[in-house]
Design a protein that fits this description.
Blueprint (H helix, E strand, L loop, with lengths): L1 H6 L19 H5 L13 H26 L6 H13 L1 H23 L7 H7 L6 E2 L8 E2 L3 H12 L1 H21 L6 H5 L2 H16 L4 H14 L10 H4 L5 H11 L1 H6 L3 H11 L1 H15 L2
Parallel strand pairs: 1-2
């Protein structure tokens, strides 16, 4: 949603007062703001749509407010026509932002739904690292309900890129098929976890993801926003407290600690960092080492 607001962000104008003003757009009217931000149930399609719609409407109002303040408190018909043309010119970017948001969320929901079958084996490689933290029922303490998975998958896609992620998925499907054929059609997820080729694949992906957390505070805020903005639906019998649950900072840090547990050892000592840098580069090594310090501490 931040992308939508950025598209509509106003430039600061410095034009002088015009003789034709519209009283309905007075400075006093435009200066008024709602007392509190509306809260939406972002776990439902209706809530997602409502939040997106309000984001656009509020961005439009903010644009009018900025323009009026820059022009002395009111807008002319010509000003409104100019703004309308500007919004029209940005409609393609807005449409693309909406499409990307809904498409990415749809893919993430699908991946969370089918994570138990063989359609998305790469996802299983990642989730099994912190699956012990996922509560299938109501959350307690630092445990995270499985409702976090759609947002988690969405964030992973954003960090790795869709093409890279699709390549990882396909590579894992080939590994699963090979294992299944070798075992006469039998397959269990631990077979994939024990496969060295799959472990190397997952490690490379985790390195790429871990490097993003060198700027931990910024990336943690971003990740939590993605996850909590795209939680899966609460169970039908959930209490109001359970339905309102969101991933908190403590549970998030636990999740990252489990996800990147094996990465920690790869940059824990000078010798380990030397080997790591030979494969991934010195810049990636520094970024990952900083991220592990923030996530795991020393």
């Amino acid at each position: 949603m931040a992308k939508l607001t950025a598209i509509l962000k106003p430039p600061i104008t410095g034009r002088g007062m015009s003789p034709r003003r519209i009283a309905a757009t007075s400075k006093a009217a435009l200066a008024s703001r709602p007392a509190a931000k509306t809260q939406f149930d972002l776990s439902t399609p209706a809530g997602q749509g409502h939040a997106l719609a309000e984001t656009v409407v509020m961005a439009f109002i903010d644009r009018l407010r900025h323009e009026a303040e820059a022009l002395g408190g009111a807008l002319t018909l010509a000003d409104l026509e100019r703004l309308a043309a500007d919004f029209h010119n940005k409609s393609a970017a807005l449409r693309q932002a909406f499409e990307l948001t809904f498409e990415a969320y749809g893919r993430a929901r699908e991946r969370a739904k089918f994570a138990q079958n063989r359609n998305y084996p790469f996802d299983r490689l990642l989730v099994q690292r912190f699956e012990h933290l996922l509560a299938r029922g109501p959350a307690s303490g630092n445990l995270s309900p499985r409702r976090v998975l759609p947002g988690f998958f969405m964030a992973v896609e954003m960090m790795l890129g869709r093409q890279v992620l699709d390549a990882y998925q396909e590579h894992c499907r080939i590994i699963v098929e090979r294992i299944s054929k070798a075992q006469g059609g039998k397959f269990a997820w631990p077979d994939l976890y024990a496969e060295p080729e799959a472990a190397t694949l997952a490690f490379d992906a985790l390195v790429a993801m871990a490097a993003y957390f060198a700027d931990y505070d910024k990336r943690a805020r971003w990740f939590l926003t993605i996850v909590n903005g795209h939680l899966g639906p609460a169970p039908a019998n959930a209490s109001p407290e359970e339905a309102a649950w969101q991933l908190g900072e403590a549970a998030f840090r636990d999740l990252l600690g489990a996800l990147f547990a094996e990465i920690k050892d790869s940059v824990a000592t000078a010798d380990a960092r030397t080997l790591f840098a030979r494969k991934y580069g010195i810049d990636k090594c520094r970024a990952v080492a900083e991220a592990m310090t923030r996530i795991h501490g020393r």
